[in-house]
Amino acid sequence: MSRKHIRIDFHTHIIPEKLPDLAAKYGDNRFPILQKTCSCGAKIIREGKTFREITDQAWDPEKRIKDMDKEGVDIQVLSPIPVTLSYWSAPEAGMEFSKLQNDFIASVAKKYPDRFIGMGTVPLQETELAINEMERAVKELGLNGVQIGSNVNGLNLDDSSLYPFFKAAEELNVPLFVHPWATLGKERLHKFNSMYTVGMPSETALAAGSLIMSGVLENLPALKVCFAHGGGALPYILPRMDKGWEVWPDTRQTEKPPSFYAKKLYYDSLVYDPANLKFMIDRFGTKQIIAGSDYPFLLREKPVGEVIDNLNNLSIEDKEVMLGKNALDFLGLSEIVKT
Length: 339
What we know:
Structural class: alpha/beta
CATH class: Alpha Beta
Order of helices and strands: EHEEEHEHEHEHEHHEHHEHEHH
Shape: globular
């Protein structure tokens, strides 16, 4: 890629078209199954019900490239669909599912190296296996990061069992993309698609807050973590978190208030409204925000970076940083853009 300024969609999801039927193999219908409805569409079936209907954009790189060309996107960063995380499964089954997805994503990135960058997945229900697969994904497959869920079977990300994984990610310099899944309060989110509109932002804030307030980020200062959906509710509740840190000193696990560590995290730009983006910029600065759309799903921003483009009183340089450079810096790929 010879252009200095490029547009990258950091937040996109992909799934293998020929997804093995692990539900049948392991006798557990919680594993998602891909049921084709036509050559250009399918249903993701889970527990005997339609979880989501998808189009061939979710698996066909050629279709994705056509969309990218139409919308002015140079590169997509690929990551798994969160429903495939399957942390509830037996570790060996989770490892198998992670490997087949990582192999697929790596094959797409290898076939189209100028258009796609791959991020993998790991079986976080077993920390040692997760570390092994993370190492394989980056060292053998050439993936450039790992997507993880916002909790592991109800355990927040500050749980002591997960700390070795984060330590290994820091040591291996593997950036992590945290996406909400298995949201808190899901039993109350059945109406109005509230899981997506209310539950996921709340879940993301809890995930970020657990890493911040537990001291994980303080103890692992080189760890690179990006949170989906603009960090969910986190940017707006930080003052309340700081106040709690101030008035309850006996619960403190960090030397500085939460807002200090929140500024070290990265966030995608999927907040839709320029006013929200301006709020995030005021709170975190432009260097921590990465353009991402949630392609190819209904809640996606189209085209990616529209909220950045539409923000007034922002320099061209700052817009270009968020639209491309920050993604490359986060992924350790700044050399892609020649100056």
